[in-house]
Write a structure and sequence with these properties.
By secondary structure, this protein is of the alpha+beta class. The protein has two domains: 137 residues, no CATH class; 57 residues, no CATH class. The protein is 20% helix and 33% strand. It contains four helices and 15 strands. The strands form two sheets. Strands 1, 2, 3, 4, 7, 8, 9, 10, 11, 12, 13, 14 and 15 form a 13-stranded mixed beta sheet that branches. The longest helix is centred in the middle third of the chain and has 17 residues.
Length: 208
């Protein structure tokens, strides 16, 4: 039986470097494949040990213990001359990077890591579980900051499910200067921040 799952996340470039380094310390045969559509067909030009080495938002986490470069080089479709490499597979997990919000200066948009796996494939499940375990160890919980119709500011008592932030994102996007972590236009702050510490961002405040 195939199952799908994902983890929504906030990462800065510094966080990404730490995540990539930590993951590859556990398995040096894990690399990151740039899957942004382009004219580049050679996987050697797309594979990196750190996602910050390339200017792309879309990667696949690849376990080269389970797939050869030769096999990986065939995992694409061509549309209008562009190579669209697959993001998921037995040896792959989808990695959408978290990026600065293009509409709200000083805020950070969420990214995600996602996968699908066969429940009876122990080897596949084991390495993908390791990726999520590393994320959980490095990540911290975040809470929803919102404004009620009467203008009252609130922070949810419980952290958001399946949404984490890594340490540098926590440090730089804590809401204290209107610098929020954004998920589907909702504002998030680190767990432990109080309403009195938060400063509103005028662009994110609903107009009356």
């Amino acid at each position: 039986m195939e199952r799908m799952r994902d983890c929504q996340l906030f990462m800065t470039t510094k966080d990404e470097k730490m995540f990539c380094k930590t993951l590859r310390a556990c398995n040096p045969n894990i690399y990151f494949l740039d899957v942004k559509p382009s004219f580049e067909a050679c996987v050697n030009g797309r594979l990196v040990s750190d996602v910050t080495e390339l200017n792309s938002e879309f990667f696949s986490i690849v376990n080269l213990d389970l797939i050869s470069k030769e096999e990986l080089s065939k995992c694409y479709k061509i549309r209008n001359g562009y190579y669209h490499f697959f993001q998921l597979g037995r040896a792959q997990m989808q990695f959408l990077r978290s990026t600065p919000d293009t509409n709200v200066e000083g805020c950070l948009q969420h990214g995600r890591i996602a996968d699908s796996y066969e429940t009876d494939d122990k080897e596949e499940k084991e390495w993908k579980n390791k990726v999520y375990n590393i994320l959980k160890k490095l990540g911290q919980k975040v809470c929803w900051y919102y404004i009620l119709p009467d203008g009252t500011r609130e922070i949810s008592a419980k952290p958001q499910n399946n949404l984490i932030a890594l340490p540098d994102a926590i440090l730089n996007y804590d809401g204290k200067q209107g610098n929020f972590m954004i998920h589907n236009r909702a504002m998030f702050v680190p767990q432990g921040i109080s309403v009195n510490e938060v400063n509103d961002n005028p662009i994110l405040i609903p107009k009356e």
